[in-house]
Amino acid sequence: MKESGNFEFDDVQGLLRFGYGKLADTCFMLLKIADASAARQWLSTAPVSSAIAIHPPPDTALQIAFSVQGLRALGIDESIIDGFSDEFVHGMTRNENCSRRLGDIGHNAPKYWKWGEGADVPHILLLLYARKGGLDAWKATVEGEYFSQAFQLLQYLPTSDMGRTDPFGFEDGISQPAIDWADRHDTDSHANDRYTNLLAAGEMVLGYPNEYGQYTARPLIDLQKDRFAVNLPDAKDDPARKDFGRNGTYLVLRQLEQNVPGFWQFLDKVSDSIPEKRERLAASMVGRERNGTPLIAEHIPGILPKDHGNHFTYDLDPKGNHCPVSAHVRRANPRTGDLPTAVTGTGAIALINRLVKILGFGQKPEEDLIASSRFHRLLRRGRSYGPVLAPGDAVKPDAPAAERGLQFICLVANIGRQFEFVQNAWIVNGKFGGLQEEPDPLLGNREPMINGNSTDHFNRPTSSGSMQKTCHLPQFTTVLGGGYFFMPGLRALKYISALPANGNGGSS
Ligand code: HEM
């Protein structure tokens, strides 16, 4: 297969490289396989978009991902399934402990979900993208022959075009990791004392070295046992075997309902209905102003107030006087390097400090708790849903209630180390960066800690050193469904669609 530059973009689904932001009409379909043979037929001709850059960009795109149940229903052998990660194989709702760690308890519990649990686990996720007004025609083209015979529609996940704004009214999709497609970045620990936004491709794409310089476990196929695997890429770390995972990724999907009137009315109440106060509190919960400006922008030299980019860290704001430590964006990506700030730099003192830290002495609690960001990044590809409700209207007592929220999607090569870690250790966990009993203000489920202490507050230090405490936060977001999917490379997709009716049974 042809390589584009150094990377096999023609074997990669486009979502790994593009957000398809210009394709504002989207529809996400959760399918069950009704007839495996018709499903494979449909898959063999599905017009799936690759990651090759085309100019001008196409007007439509289609992406496909499978749950483990879907792979099994299509006849993928258990020896291949065994090569996937436990998180993918056993799923997002695999046991109570996992649900607790992901914050899926109380109103978020899987038993209340609209999909993703028990009989409502989807087999296939289809992501359709089109330019405004083009979705119906694209959907008809995509469905084509075999579709109605092959699949049952489990859920049609709504999305709506809110521009770059999320339902609460904040600009979203600003910060993303940059992927080192050209493989120039040094993953050695000494090269990464400080935060960097550039990530090894293997953090997002299977079959390439990750930030540890290693290959993430994935299904490798022995050609002796499976002659159908012949057109799959070779495994770079095990050339005698074929790589079913290479150029694929895991896709995490969570349907998160947002109570927009509830959010703004609560903030209005605790801000004595003073609009500026309300805005400041909302921005400090998110960690950016509504137009996307980072909260530390005006305080830290070198950051342009309107620079929406990623060119900042929290190093000069260790106590969160400008951007609270608990703010959503600071928790979701603390922008930490491999060593705490005070230890980076050059010279004899820095060297001694570094040795002291490596040996584990003199660690402050907040330094212990925040791991290096480069091992826990997410490539976010979600879309909002529901009707737009501007904050100024949402504060009114008669604000129209409606289903609104985020179809949260992220792509990762390691579900446990990336999505589950961020969701658990940084978002849901009350202990973060020296904070106690204070989860993410936007996403917290407000369930008490195991010791019975409440988690429904948000602390905002002021520059004078005092703490502004907001108490009795209601739950602003609720999980309505979720699942883990494998988004294969295009050659692996061909392999799936070419499986014989009795499973892969391809022994020669
Ligand atoms: C309804 C739920 C959510 C809302 C309203 C929301 C909102 C936002 C907003 C407004 C931003 C700032 C824009 C940007 O930096 O791109 C952001 C950033 C981010 N969010 Fe969320 N988010 C939600 C759920 C989640 C979840 C579930 C996760 C992960 C498990 C997550 C991870 C992130 C990350 C990694 C960033 C970028 C932080 C950075 O690099 O600075 N978000 N989110």
TrEMBL record:
Q: Which GO terms describe its cellular component?
A: cytosol
Q: Which organism is it from?
A: Nitrosomonas europaea (strain ATCC 19718 / CIP 103999 / KCTC 2705 / NBRC 14298)
Q: Which PANTHER family does this entry report, sorted A to Z?
A: BLR4509 PROTEIN, DEFERROCHELATASE/PEROXIDASE
Matching SUPFAM superfamilies, A to Z? Dimeric alpha+beta barrel
GO MF, one annotated term = metal ion binding
Stated name of the protein: Possible peroxidase, putative
Any keyword Iron?
yes
What domain of life does the UniProt record list for this protein's source? Bacteria
Needed cofactors: heme b
Alphabetically sorted, this entry's keywords are: Iron, Metal-binding, Oxidoreductase, Peroxidase
Metal-binding found in the keyword field: yes
Family annotation (InterPro entries): Dimeric_a/b-barrel, Dyp_peroxidase
